[in-house]
Amino acid sequence: MYCRKCGKKISDHAQFCDHCGAEVVIVPQKSYADKYKENKKKTKSQAHQTSQQQKKQQEKHKDAKNPYIAASLFAAIVSLVCAIFPWNFIGEGIGTSLPMRIIVVVFALLGDYHATKAKQTNHYLKNKYGFEIQVNAMKLGYYLSVIMTIMGLFALFMYGA
Ligand SMILES: [Zn+2]
């Protein structure tokens, strides 16, 4: 038996160390089998923790979606395409017909609406998880929608029917 404090050898039945006077505390020696079992348990619980973290992250990804960004971009681009195409899908006349101008404004407003929702969703995600999704795409959808709304309304009312 060895002293825990000074490390010198002491007799098996001594209650105090002969060399430094420290109290002898008997620490049970663990067998290899016990250690193996303990390690196995640790590994298992670590693996469990890891899988739980993975699950949490997956849930994070599941929650962390912002479909409004794509929706606002899509609406804004449809509005833009309808505004700049040199032919009319609907209606007649040179340039952009009245129904086309209405479509431009409607899609621009849809873009605005979804851009607002995208902002709200990203704000929520930032509060919940501390990060946002596709901030640049969100801004692009927002600005494009605003520009299309202004231009669309201008074209709608300035050029008349
Ligand atoms: Zn000692």
Measured by DSSP, the beta-strand proportion falls in: under 5%
**Low-confidence regions:** none
**Helix and strand element order:** HHHH
* Residue-averaged pLDDT: 85
Estimated helix fraction = 55-70%
Bound molecule kinds, no repeats: zinc ion
**Strands, total number:** 0
Shape estimate? rod-shaped
How would you explain this protein's 3D organization?
- The chain is mainly α and 161 residues long.
- The protein has a domain at 66-158.
- The protein is 66% helix and 0% strand.
- It has 4 helices and no strands.
- It has helices spanning 32-63, 67-84, 98-129, 135-158.
- Helix 2 runs antiparallel to helix 3 (98-129) and helix 2 runs parallel beside helix 4.
- The longest helix has 32 residues, at 32-63.
- The mean pLDDT is 85.
- Zinc ion binds next to loops.
Topology:
Elements: H1 32-63, H2 67-84, H3 98-129, H4 135-158
Helix pairs in contact: 2-3, 2-4, 3-4
Provide a compact summary of the structure.
The protein has 161 residues and is an all-alpha fold.
